[in-house]
Write a structure and sequence with these properties.
alpha/beta; FAD/NAD(P)-binding domain; 3 domains; eight-stranded mixed β-sheet; 13 helices; 24% strand
Length: 405
């Protein structure tokens, strides 16, 4: 058994934890970064990184991924809107993306610990935090940072548990790229559910998935919906005019063959994503004396889309700056002043975004308006890229058309 002492213990080696470890270690802080995932096990995530994030941190492009300049949006009824993006975004395998950030942290001097650890509350705020491994090893530090995802036990202990209504579920499959055919990037709003499906082509496979709210989660029905989406995606490689969600009777035999081929190769994944309500964002803390929460552990994900990589990286940056300036508690004020308003506005908009407008799902009307209106289409491009925020979205769209948000 060993016992080591550090300045900071960071639990979770995803984007938030690794980025914070890198920034702190480069300035001479003694950091231990704990990665409890089995080697090579990716996080369940579409892996999309917005152009906003790529412009803020250009080194992200050094990770092995695919740059995307075109996106197909589909309405719940299957209407298509093709977006040619002025600012490309990137799609990564989370194994490659997380490894890139973790290795940067290691090169900066962070101590990488490939262990699952247990955690207990301190008896008082002057004590060190203590993490323990299964074999009895101990690691101590006066500062503890939780960056270990939406299910973080540390976050539950320090900031409180989130109700099911403020959690979302993402699940999906990794499947082979279509041989010799194009593999478009697709986001399709779900018929009958609040949420969307995606098809994100990566370097050597496609990530398919669905994101929807946990409190209304019906696994069997949603899994069948996802299989319809996946089969429809491959069906369209043979016939570009085929419907994404529904097949014709004469297509049923071909669809059955596609599904059997996919079932033989598909790898399933699942994860939870925070989707905090505005009231929770107002009251839930992400920092206290000797501790901080980053990324999903803090609840920093877009309640409308579930996108969290930008907020993971930005929260890591803001915490690191606060710590290095000797005022770690200022992190709370900084994240609220930086992106807190955007998250709060997204939380307020979520119900309307996935609700009805003019007798149909709002997402249906949004695609219809985008297909016929260049101004709305332009704003949607900026929204996908991450360059258009929610705070002034209503005003910007109101210049072009009636907008219910």
């Amino acid at each position: 058994m060993t016992s080591e002492r550090f300045d900071i213990l960071i639990v979770g080696a995803g984007p938030a934890g690794s980025f914070a470890a890198e920034k702190l270690a480069r300035k001479g802080v003694c950091v231990a970064l704990f990665d409890g995932r089995p080697a090579g096990e990716p996080k369940a995530c579409g892996g999309g990184v917005t152009s906003k994030a790529l412009k803020a941190w250009p080194h992200l492009l050094e990770a092995v991924g695919r740059t995307i300049s075109d996106l197909d949006l589909y309405s719940p009824a299957g209407k298509k809107l093709h977006l040619k993006l002025e600012e490309p975004f990137a799609i990564y395998s989370r194994t490659a993306f997380d490894s890139h950030l973790r290795e940067r942290a290691r090169e900066a001097g962070a101590h990488i610990k490939a262990f699952r650890v247990s955690f207990n509350q301190r008896t008082n705020e002057e004590d060190d935090w203590v993490l323990r491994g299964r074999n009895g090893d101990e690691w101590r530090a006066p500062m503890l940072v939780a960056a270990d995802g939406a299910g973080s036990r540390i976050a539950k202990e320090l900031a409180g548990q989130l109700p099911p209504s403020e959690m979302e579920v993402a699940f999906g499959y990794r499947t082979p790229l279509p041989e010799g055919k194009d593999a478009p990037t697709v986001v399709a709003f779900l018929p009958g559910y609040a949420g969307y499906a995606w098809a994100f082509p990566r370097v050597d496979h496609i990530s398919f998935g669905i994101a929807t709210s946990q409190d209304a989660f019906d696994h069997q029905a949603l899994d069948q919906l996802l299989w319809k989406f996946m089969v429809g995606y491959y069906r369209q490689r043979e016939n570009a005019k085929a419907h994404l969600w529904h097949s014709r009777p004469q297509d049923e035999e071909g669809d059955a063959l596609i599904r059997r081929e996919l079932e033989a190769t598909a790898e399933r994944y699942a994860a939870r994503i925070p989707g905090l309500a505005a009231k929770t964002l107002d009251t839930r803390r992400a920092a206290g004396k000797g501790w901080a929460l980053l990324g999903d552990a803090a609840g920093f994900a877009d309640p409308v889309t579930g996108e969290g990589i930008y907020y993971a990286l930005r929260s890591a940056e803001l915490f690191s700056e606060s710590y290095l300036e000797g005022v770690p508690l200022d992190y709370e004020k900084r994240w609220r002043g930086d992106f807190g308003r955007e998250l709060r506005r997204a939380a307020e908009m979520r119900q309307r975004f996935y609700g009805n407008f003019w007798g149909a799902p709002f997402t249906e009307r949004m695609i219809e308006l985008g297909r016929g209106h260049r101004g709305i289409k332009r704003v949607l491009r900026e929204l996908v890229a991450g360059d258009q925020g929610y705070v002034n979205l209503k005003r910007k769209l109101a210049r072009s058309a009636i907008w219910p948000l």
